[in-house]
Design brief:
The protein is mainly α. The longest helix has 39 residues. The chain is elongated, with a radius of gyration of 25 Å.
């Protein structure tokens, strides 16, 4: 890479970091970001910055949802280990869903995300049924009268 190319790449990363971390704060402080001679590049950087912020918010929302499901399962079952065991099926279902999308050569879109959410619900429901069935089979039963 030429020295000019490396300087430009560092500059692009710096602008992207500013837009990601505090571009709005600079505008609120009265400072304006310089007008880029390359408006398409600036638009791409801003789009990338929004995508990073959205993915972070989505990660927090997914973590909060999984924690809420864990709390509900823990309350229903009375066992944190069984609740964790049930939640262990979610990543396995995710991998299976992604592999199914790859095998069928489908794209990652809103419809596939809705399908994955449904798959997560089915995986949790099936593992909950399995855990409660195993609990019932392991529970001591009184002898049957003849």
């Amino acid at each position: 890479m030429t020295p000019l190319g490396s300087i430009l790449s560092v500059l692009i990363l710096f602008v992207a970091a500013i837009l990601e971390a505090g571009g709005d704060a600079l505008v609120r402080a009265g400072l304006r970001t310089p007008v880029s001679p390359y408006p398409r590049l600036r638009h791409k950087i801003q789009t990338w910055s929004r995508a990073v912020m959205t993915s972070r918010a989505l990660t927090v929302a997914i973590a909060a949802a999984l924690f809420g499901v864990f709390l509900l399962l823990n309350l229903a079952l009375g066992s944190a280990i069984e609740a964790l065991l049930i939640l262990c099926t979610v990543p396995i279902a995710f991998v299976g869903g992604i592999l199914a999308l790859l095998v069928m050569r489908e794209t990652w879109n809103v419809s596939s995300l809705v399908g994955l959410i449904g798959l997560f619900g089915i995986a949790v429901q099936n593992s909950l049924v399995l855990v409660t069935q195993i609990r019932g089979l392991l529970a001591p039963h009184p002898p049957r009268p003849n």
